[in-house]
């Protein structure tokens, strides 16, 4: 069917506007960026030590301290580049029960995606060696890798779910893709590596598993950096000045927060909560959001039920803000404001 000329022109105009808009958001040739988590290389490559990872062992489903079938250790040599790595061991004829396990837990990191926005892809990688032939002759070994909350327990995303560990003493790459929106920008996480072993009563020789180069890689379009250099001190000062009118209505506190103008054209990632004191327990839930440099957001925070009565009688409260921008370490501020 022939399309009228006027309609064809309108269609072309709509398409042109869409293309121009897309180019404005993602400029042609915008570089891809990859951000590694944990951000500290020492917590990924173990070249200089354990990298603040912690380990626990279990036996029969409970924690084990003495006479354990499993143990954990840091090895200074023997890794992928003949440098350091983490190790879990199942000892021969050491157990009084038939199941055992180990857990390695990374230090806490704050997830910032790609400069405060969700990545296009999120991939977990690690190098592993597994000398478990003696164990596999009589039992099983399974591996679970997950991203957990800062408490080290609460599961957030499963990376590798109860996968069998085969005997492979050479270092080899293990990788798995996560949903790019699996983690929340601005939240704190840890990486947890669990190994579980069955039929350890029958193991007659030591078996070991090594871990090296553990990384969660977020990849996406790089965001612009602030047009002008901004220091942490300046960001702190501007963020304090950007905390505005704060109102209590029912169970909600409404406050205004501005991302410092000097951050433009980049964005601020902000975490906001209200407390009755400068430090200590919070009177409200915490809200995380992003704003471009110079833009103001009206944030609505739910007051916790047990704090509502005390909050309603206060003339002053503390607005607490944590802010992160590309190229600047995270800054935390608190401002005492009148509650209207």
β-sheet strand percentage: over 45%
Low-confidence stretches: 5-29
Q: Would you state the CATH class of the largest domain?
A: Mainly Beta
Overall residue-averaged pLDDT value: 84
What does this 3D model show about the protein?
By secondary structure, this protein is mainly beta. It folds into 2 domains: 190 residues, Jelly Rolls (Sandwich); 107 residues, Immunoglobulin-like, CATH 2.60.40.2060. It has 5 helices and 20 strands. The strands form 4 sheets. Strands 2, 3, 6, 7, 9, 10 and 12 form a 7-stranded antiparallel sheet that branches. Strands 1, 4, 5, 8, 11 and 13 form a 6-stranded antiparallel sheet that branches. It has a 4-stranded antiparallel sheet with strand order 17-16-19-20, covered by helices on one side. A hairpin with a 2-residue loop joins strand 2 and strand 3. The longest helix is centred in the N-terminal third of the chain and has 21 residues.
